């Protein structure tokens, strides 16, 4: 679905490589989590996959990014947008209409969707995210979680093959974050490729099938979520804030009490602790 070959990028006015010789593959239907410390290159990588870099954010671009077989450097951003839906971190700057319905209609009309398809697509996108009751609401009256889902619905109505989200839970409380990721998991189960960048590794590793750990513009780790989270030393070196259950697993491993996979969720952490306790009885 997406291939990245020897990708490097330097923003205009800078000498620092925001991305440094990255090569990776993302298959169709994957749920990919991208994490790393601040300024590690997460957002730039996502924007390169969406064609925003280098078409809208200028700089020196080396290597290649292909999405659905299209080279993003040689393809018009409008054409890429028919394949990739991008939801940035700053939701406020993306909302340009007064109501939820108008926000979805704006994208559909801009994409010249046939009139007879507009209502079915709009209704289906709202229903998919369980926000149909918000259809007539003013965006200014919505909570952070509701705005995030509205932005997501506006993308879904356009029927992209790939959905890319940059730090989607930044302004959300734990309950809203869980609801959002449940919705993303449901979309992924229907075949949509989902790529989300987060610093909340505990959330990402529970939902993602693959993980990419960025460090100083490079992809330090890239692989199955379990494999990546097992490399606790590399996570620490990259400045990734490990969730407490992973931290516990790493400490128990260091003390020779545990040699299994790092627990990606609470039930597996509980099973890890029970196993150690049973072994010591």
TrEMBL record:
SMART domains: AAA. The keyword NADP does not apply. One of its GO terms (molecular function) is ATPase-coupled transmembrane transporter activity. Transmembrane segments: none annotated. PROSITE patterns: ABC_TRANSPORTER_2. Residues 2-241 form the ABC transporter domain. It holds the Pfam family ABC_tran. GO terms for cellular component: ATP-binding cassette (ABC) transporter complex. Keywords: ATP-binding, Nucleotide-binding, Transport. It comes from the Bacteria. The lineage of its organism: Bacteria, Thermotogati, Synergistota, Synergistia, Synergistales. The keyword Nucleotide-binding applies. It comes from Cloacibacillus evryensis. This is Energy-coupling factor ABC transporter ATP-binding protein.
